[in-house]
């Protein structure tokens, strides 16, 4: 008896536990009964808000959808500007589910991969169209904010000019939603992301680069231009250096000439003063003057090796080289 009661209590707890489900913050729930979506009076899927809810165990299941903002990186791709110039654009976008029932029906049971596939194709087509309207200068400078805003608005609201594969797929998904809900949905542009129940929150461009072959050619041209400027500066520097060197040489020559002229003047004045001093000194003692002249003559005569002089010993040239006693004797005679 007790075992049966305990088993009944356990069964009741299991059933009760299976009857309760919780939708956490940042999520929304879609109820499925025998695999079919539970719908409201307007034939739209029932969406459960965050909090505890009840379901029929083993018959009803819950499909949860992420209500948070999603970030999707877009692989860098090549785009053509209005000047027919290629750019490599690296970007990303942020999106979230705005209409959960529409999103669930349009994407095939709420598959996020299907939603991102359509969103990525639509974004690529729209970005390509917007970049094709602008030139390179407008894209990389002040037009980047306007560019991303235009792309975001075009994704959310749609346009009347697109006719791409992505637009056709979005329109097909939107038509499926209208058919399943029997036209009880808001009328939306069939090529907008709103038709899928998606809102694009933000679009950002991370990098804009030139293709390798273009950037290589540009770098080569820039290098050639810089080298030409460098050569011009070097030639101008050499020219200025030659001017400075010529001016310095001219100044040096003038200074040397002036110094040489002053040296000659000073040397002449010094020689004149020396001559005057010698003259004054020698006039007071003629014998001493004759002795000095003889010493200079001896110096000039004997200073070079190999000079031969044939003179008589009694020659007056050698008078200061004789014995003083003989010299005096000769002088007396």
TrEMBL record:
> How would you describe this protein's topology in the membrane?
Single-pass membrane protein
Which NCBIfam families does this one have? hflC (TIGR01932), PRK11029.1 (NF008259)
Q: Fetch the InterPro entries from UniProt.
A: Band_7, Band_7/SPFH_dom_sf, HflC
Q: What does this protein do?
A: HflC and HflK could regulate a protease.
Source taxonomy lineage? Bacteria, Pseudomonadati, Pseudomonadota, Gammaproteobacteria, Enterobacterales
The source organism is Xenorhabdus lircayensis
The record's similarity note reads:
Belongs to the band 7/mec-2 family. HflC subfamily.
Q: Which ranges does the record mark as transmembrane?
A: 6-24
Q: Offer one Pfam family short name for this entry.
A: Band_7
The record ties this protein, via PANTHER family, to: MODULATOR OF FTSH PROTEASE HFLC (PTHR42911)
Q: Which gene encodes it?
A: hflC
Gene Ontology terms, MF aspect:
peptidase activity
Q: Name it.
A: Protein HflC
């Amino acid at each position: 008896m007790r075992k049966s009661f305990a088993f009944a209590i356990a069964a009741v707890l299991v059933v009760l536990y299976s009857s309760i489900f919780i939708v956490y913050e940042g999520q929304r729930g879609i109820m499925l009964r025998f695999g079919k979506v539970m719908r409201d009076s307007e034939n739209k899927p029932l969406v459960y808000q965050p909090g505890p809810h009840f379901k029929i165990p083993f018959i009803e299941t819950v499909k949860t959808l992420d209500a948070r903002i999603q970030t999707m990186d877009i692989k860098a791709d090549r785009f053509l500007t209005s000047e027919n110039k290629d750019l490599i654009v690296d970007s990303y976008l942020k999106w979230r589910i705005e209409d959960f029932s529409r999103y669930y029906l349009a994407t095939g049971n709420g598959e996020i991969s299907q939603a991102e596939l359509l969103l990525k194709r639509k974004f690529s087509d729209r970005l390509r169209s917007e970049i094709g309207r602008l030139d390179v200068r407008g894209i990389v400078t002040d037009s980047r904010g306007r560019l991303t805003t235009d792309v975001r608005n075009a994704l959310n609201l749609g346009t009347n000019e697109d006719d791409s594969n992505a637009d056709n797929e979005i329109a097909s998904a939107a038509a499926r939603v209208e058919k399943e809900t029997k036209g009880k949905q808001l009328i939306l542009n069939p090529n907008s992301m709103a038709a899928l129940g998606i809102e694009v929150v933000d679009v950002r461009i991370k990098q804009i680069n030139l293709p390798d072959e273009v950037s290589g050619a540009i770098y080569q041209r820039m290098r050639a231009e810089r080298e030409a400027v460098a050569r011009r500066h070097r030639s101008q520097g050499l020219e200025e250096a030659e001017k400075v060197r010529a001016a310095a040489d001219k100044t040096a020559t003038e200074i040397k000439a002036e110094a040489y002229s002053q040296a000659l003047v000073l040397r002449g004045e010094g020689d004149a003063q020396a001559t005057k001093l010698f003259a004054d000194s020698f006039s007071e003692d003629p014998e001493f003057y004759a002795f000095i002249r003889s010493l200079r003559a001896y110096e000039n005569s004997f200073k070079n090796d190999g000079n031969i002089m044939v003179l008589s010993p009694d020659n007056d040239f050698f008078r200061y080289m004789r014995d003083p006693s003989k010299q005096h004797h000769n002088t007396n005679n």
